[in-house]
Specification:
Elements: H1 2-8, H2 17-37, H3 41-64, H4 67-93, E1 99-100, H5 101-109, E2 115-116, E3 123-124, E4 128-131, E5 136-139, E6 143-144, E7 150-151, H6 156-183, H7 190-221, H8 226-239, H9 250-258, E8 290-291
Helix pairs in contact: 3-4, 3-6, 4-6, 6-7
C-alpha cells in the first residue's frame, strides 16, 4: 500500500505546476499566432469577390443597365477594391504601440500618478489598455478586430475607412443584385443561381459593415473608444448622468482620432493615402511626433 501511495504522490506534486503553466502558455502563444493569421485571408476574400462580380454579375449588369452606368461601375469597382486593400494593409501593418508625444507629456506632467500595466509591467499612458491577443499595451485601445488587427490610435482611421468602403461597396452591390433578381426572376441558369447565393452573402456583409460603421461613427464623434463607451454606459446606468470626459468638439474629435496634421484639412484624411509627417515642426506641432513605447 505504501508503495502504491508513493507512486501516486508525484501526480499531485506542486512542483509540477510550472510545467502545467508552461504548457498552457505555449497553447496560448499558438492560439495568438493563428489569430494573427486570420487577417491575411481578407485580401483573398476581397479579390475573390471581385472575380465573382465580373464572372457572374457583370454579364447581367451590361444587359440591364445603361452604358454610362456600366462604365461608372467598372471604374468604381476598381477604385473601391484599391481602397479596401489599402486600408486593410495599413490597419494590419501599422504598429498600434507607438506613443505620441502628447501622451508622453501627459505622463511626465502627471509623474506623481504614473501607473503600470498589471500584465506587461510597462508604464501605462493615458487611455492605454492591454490587448490580450497582441499581449501588448495599445494607445487609445478600441478593440482587437480578428479580421484586421488590434485597433488603436494609429490605425482607427484605416479601420473606419475600411468599414466605410465596405458598407458603400456592398450597398451598391445589393442594389444591382436586387435589380437583376427582379428582372431575371424565374431564370434557371447556373449563373443566376450563383447570383442568388452571392446576394445572400452580400446582404450579411452589408449588415455587419453597416452596424460597425454606425457604432464607430458615433464613438469617433464623441471622442470615445469601445472601452470608453463601456465605462460611459456603466456610469450612465449607475449615476443617471451622461459624462463624456474626452469630448472637445465634433470636428476636433475627428481630427484627434484621424491624427490630422494642423496644416491640413480633415477631408484629406478620408482619401486612400497617408500624409507624411513634417520634420520642420514648431513646438505646437509636437503632437504629431511619435516615440517608441
Amino acid at each position: 500500500m505504501d508503495k502504491f501511495l508513493q507512486k501516486q504522490q508525484p501526480v499531485n506534486d506542486p512542483l509540477q505546476t510550472p510545467n502545467i503553466l508552461q504548457s498552457k502558455n505555449k497553447m496560448i502563444q499558438k492560439l495568438r499566432f493563428f489569430v494573427r493569421l486570420i487577417p491575411l485571408f481578407i485580401p483573398i476574400l476581397l479579390i475573390g469577390m471581385y472575380l465573382l462580380f465580373y464572372n457572374f454579375i457583370f454579364r447581367y449588369v451590361k444587359e440591364l443597365f445603361s452604358m454610362s452606368f456600366v462604365i461608372f461601375i467598372f471604374i468604381w469597382s476598381h477604385y473601391k477594391l484599391y481602397c479596401l486593400l489599402y486600408h486593410w494593409y495599413k490597419s494590419y501593418t501599422t504598429k498600434p504601440f507607438i506613443i505620441p508625444m502628447n501622451y508622453y507629456h501627459s505622463l511626465v506632467n502627471n509623474s506623481n500618478e504614473i501607473e503600470f500595466c498589471d500584465i506587461c509591467k510597462q508604464q501605462k499612458y493615458p487611455r492605454t489598455h492591454h490587448c490580450s491577443v497582441c499581449n501588448q499595451c495599445v494607445v487609445r485601445y478600441d478593440h482587437h478586430c480578428a479580421w484586421l488587427s488590434c485597433i488603436g490610435l494609429h490605425n482607427i482611421r484605416h479601420f473606419y475607412l475600411f468599414l466605410y468602403h465596405g458598407t458603400t461597396t456592398t450597398l451598391l452591390g445589393l442594389y444591382m443584385l436586387v435589380i437583376i433578381l427582379y428582372n431575371k426572376k424565374g431564370n434557371q441558369e447556373f449563373y443566376f443561381k450563383c447570383v442568388l447565393l452571392i446576394t445572400l452573402v452580400l446582404a450579411n456583409l452589408f449588415i455587419t459593415c453597416l452596424l460597425q460603421f454606425i457604432v464607430q461613427t458615433v464613438m469617433i464623434s464623441v471622442n470615445e473608444t469601445m472601452v470608453d463607451m463601456i465605462s460611459t454606459i456603466n456610469s450612465l446606468i449607475k449615476n443617471k448622468t451622461l459624462v463624456l470626459p474626452y469630448y472637445i468638439s465634433l470636428i476636433q474629435n475627428w481630427r484627434d482620432a484621424f491624427l490630422v496634421r494642423k496644416d491640413l484639412s480633415l477631408l484629406w484624411y478620408f482619401l486612400p493615402y497617408t500624409p507624411s509627417i513634417k520634420y520642420n515642426m514648431t513646438i505646437d506641432d509636437l503632437d504629431s511626433i511619435e516615440i517608441d513605447a
